[in-house]
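[job 0412] stage=complex_fold ligand=adenosine-5'-triphosphate status=START
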Amino acid sequence: MQINLTGLGKRYNYEWIFRNLTYTFESGTAYAILGHNGSGKSTLLTILAGHNLASEGELSYLASGKTIAPDHAYRHLSLTAPYLELVEEFTLLEMLDFHTRFKPLRHSLSNLDLVDRMGLQKSKHKYVKDFSSGMKQRLKLALAIYSDSGMLLLDEPTTNLDQEGVAWYQEHIAQNREGRLIIVGSNIQHEYSFCDQQLRISDYHVNLDKRKP
Ligand SMILES: Nc1ncnc2c1ncn2[C@@H]1O[C@H](COP(=O)(O)OP(=O)(O)OP(=O)(O)O)[C@@H](O)[C@H]1O
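[job 0412] stage=complex_fold status=DONE, emitting structure tokens
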């Protein structure tokens, strides 16, 4: 997998969030998108995921050397983000049945195998709405990490996780990163410490001072 960005820019109304972003993301590499609150990390991730449109520039996806149409990119990626909701009315097993109908799991794992990997055996018949916030986050992460996708986009992946949950995240990423393109939006070291490359979104902010005569 490869994502190529050329002169990418995004603005909301009259406010440019970033501009002139030219960058290549490649399989086998993990990237951290870094920046302070409100700097545009989530905005860039939603554009990469095809959930949001750039205001200028070009974005292209390649799989095995072939161009993928942007509206088909979702087939190759999995995403987790604080704003993405689980189906609260499902039990854990119902949630996994629903999800894996659209996105099968990697390594031919069964849904029960995934329950084991999450360490949520005792909660398999519990409604998602009754999960703690840390259990919900672990479920969201597991669905993303264990989906059979070449691109893994993780926005603030350890939100609501305690120390044990963070260790679980690090362990399962390490076991499932090989050959994949991973992009983490974060400003917390333990979320992106495994990443090979760092992209500072603030390097692409429009510096208004520079435009003054
Ligand atoms: N739909 C929207 N309409 C208008 N402005 C928006 C919209 N979404 C985001 N913004 C603005 O874009 C900027 C970047 O927001 P974004 O959520 O991408 O930042 P972030 O780096 O992910 O922040 P955080 O670390 O707080 O999650 C902010 O100023 C935000 O208010």
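Residues 2-211 form a domain with the Rossmann fold fold (CATH 3.40.50.300).
[job 0412] exit 0
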